Amino acid sequence: MDQNDINRLRGKTAVVGLAESGCGLASGWSAMEIMATAVHDALDDAGIKLKEVDGVFAATAFHSMAAMSLSEYLGVKPKFADGSQIGGSSFLSHILTAAMALDAGLINVAVVAYGSNQKSAGGFKTISEAMPYEAQYQPRMPVTAYALSAKRYMNEFGATREDLANVAVSARDWALLNPRAYTHQDGPLTVNDVLSARPIVDPLGKLDCCLVTDGGAAVVMTRSDRAKDTKNTPIYLLGAAMEHHHRMISEMPDLVQTSAIESGKRAFSMSGYKPNDMSTIQLYDAFTINTLLFLEDLGFCKKGEAKELVKNNNTGPAGNLKVNTNGGGLSCVHPGMYGLFVTLEALRQLRNASGDDVGQRLDGGWIDNARLSVAHGNGGVLSSQVTNIWGVSDTL
Amino acid sequence: MAENLTGTVGPEQQFKNFLSEGKFMIQRCKSLNKFFFHPRVAFPGSGERDLEWVEASGNGEVYSSSCNRRLPEKGGDFNLSLITLEEGPRMMARVEGIDPDKVEIGQKVKARISSLNGEPAVIFDIV
């Protein structure tokens, strides 16, 4: 199969509705209730009735068969469903699978959903099995894995904890502009705040790590011919690709190079656009090291140079690169699996610039004239990498 | 090759059994003359099945390291590193006999078999 065949999915499908639910703290709500609320709100946003949904895609850390449990809860009888679990990037791969199923005519309306009540239910939740050959050493997963990558990165490229801290500072500055962000009222962070935070797994401290919140999200997808007749601005899937090279951190071929190099290359190729064409850049920042790695691996700079890119708040609201404009997993929301929130922010920026009402931001929180967004998901321990490229109609 | 596995044990259990006997063994693919870790039923990526167990030299180098913070009453801070073995493969392990936050990339280490929570485990010391 040549690239033209693969690229036939370009622009064939679009997101026509989106919603989040229960972000922050949702005591008294189950993960399923949070997820289903997001689905109904996303369908309301799209103006599409529940009975039209025939494709269901979901993964959580609470349900071993999430797509089936969600379908039953909603009262939907899907003709195609996918509950593939590749960690936090699952939803970006679900979007690719949904696009394939829509394009093939297997389904007409897909919902991709996530829900978690981890914070109100007691803290970080995982259904990951213990890793053979690692578990006996009692790593504090996933933090230990990302700390091992960060240490190696610092060693290879002469990066410092200050360079990592710059990522957290910029993320917080975005959150201060976003009333939806969990830390919106918390005030700015300084580099020193990040360096002096409680050490978790050196070299990562508490403020190098993402939030632990509740939250759910959902998007509704249709084929593009229908999307243009829905009530909101459709956002088209221009490119999507995934790759993974390991499951356990001890098996990662190179701790400072992720398979985002491959997923990004193929997703951008499918889209016909380059990294620098992106109006907004939404990266899965479960830890500060992630943002540095993904800026490099997706092609925004050369390997080892992201530490320069994030200096002087260049990835903050006043900077040149609009990175994690909701505040990211570090300062906006992180209910255990963050992939769908990366996606929501990529889509919201484009819809806002197209005139849709997707909520209020303080001055500078919305990117004027945004036309293209990259959403990049990460899963496991820098394991699964999935890249989606989204664009408004005139980018087709 | 082996439809019926009754009466045998897989490579993971064999590895553990070797450890219990005080041996740190890794697998080598004979036709490729390449070592790999962790233990598997075939060479990863190309599937060769002509494998043999070889005792590891125990020599290695720190590829990366972390200091996992833990309350003193729960055992205190501990090191967790990735070690590149002299034979080529990499593995997770702890480096002991040094402050857990003082282990640095590139340091030479040597394996010994110790125990963690009652199970035999490969632990490394700074050479």
What does this protein look like?
The complex is a heterodimer of chains A (396) and B (127). Chain A has 396 residues and is of the alpha/beta class. Chain A has helices at 3-6, 31-46, 66-74, 90-103, 143-157, 161-175, 191-196, 224-227, 260-271, 288-297, 306-309, 328-331, 339-353; strands at 13-24, 55-58, 80-82, 109-116, 199-202, 204-205, 214-223, 235-244, 280-283, 372-379, 384-391. Chain A has one domain: Peroxisomal Thiolase, Chain A, domain 1 (3-Layer(aba) Sandwich). In chain A, the strands form two sheets. In chain A, strands 3-2-4-7-1-8-11-10-9 form a nine-stranded mixed beta sheet, sandwiched between helices. In chain A, helix 6 crosses helix 10 (288-297). The relative contact order of chain A is 0.19. Chain B contains one helix and eight strands. In chain B, 8% of the residues lie in helices and 43% in strands. In chain B, the strands form two sheets. Chain B has a five-stranded mixed β-barrel with strand order 4-5-6-8-7. Chain B has two domains: 11-55, no CATH class; 59-126, OB fold (Dihydrolipoamide Acetyltransferase, E2P) (Beta Barrel). The A-B interface holds A 132-134, 136-140, 144, 147-149, 151-152, 155, 198-203, 248-251, 255 and B 12, 37-39, 63-69, 78, 80-82, 90-94, 101, 105, 116-117, 119, 121. Strand 5 (199-202) of chain A pairs antiparallel with strand 4 of chain B.
Write the layout of secondary structure elements.
The complex is a heterodimer of chains A (396) and B (127).
Chain A: H1 3-6, E1 13-24, H2 31-46, E2 55-58, H3 66-74, E3 80-82, H4 90-103, E4 109-116, H5 143-157, H6 161-175, H7 191-196, E5 199-202, E6 204-205, E7 214-223, H8 224-227, E8 235-244, H9 260-271, E9 280-283, H10 288-297, H11 306-309, H12 328-331, H13 339-353, E10 372-379, E11 384-391
Parallel strand pairs in A: 2-3, 2-4, 9-10
Antiparallel strand pairs in A: 1-7, 1-8, 4-7, 5-6, 8-11, 10-11
Helix pairs in contact in A: 6-10
Chain B: H1 11-20, E1 25-29, E2 34-36, E3 51-55, E4 59-68, E5 78-85, E6 90-96, E7 108-116, E8 119-126
Parallel strand pairs in B: 6-8
Antiparallel strand pairs in B: 1-2, 1-3, 4-5, 4-7, 5-6, 7-8
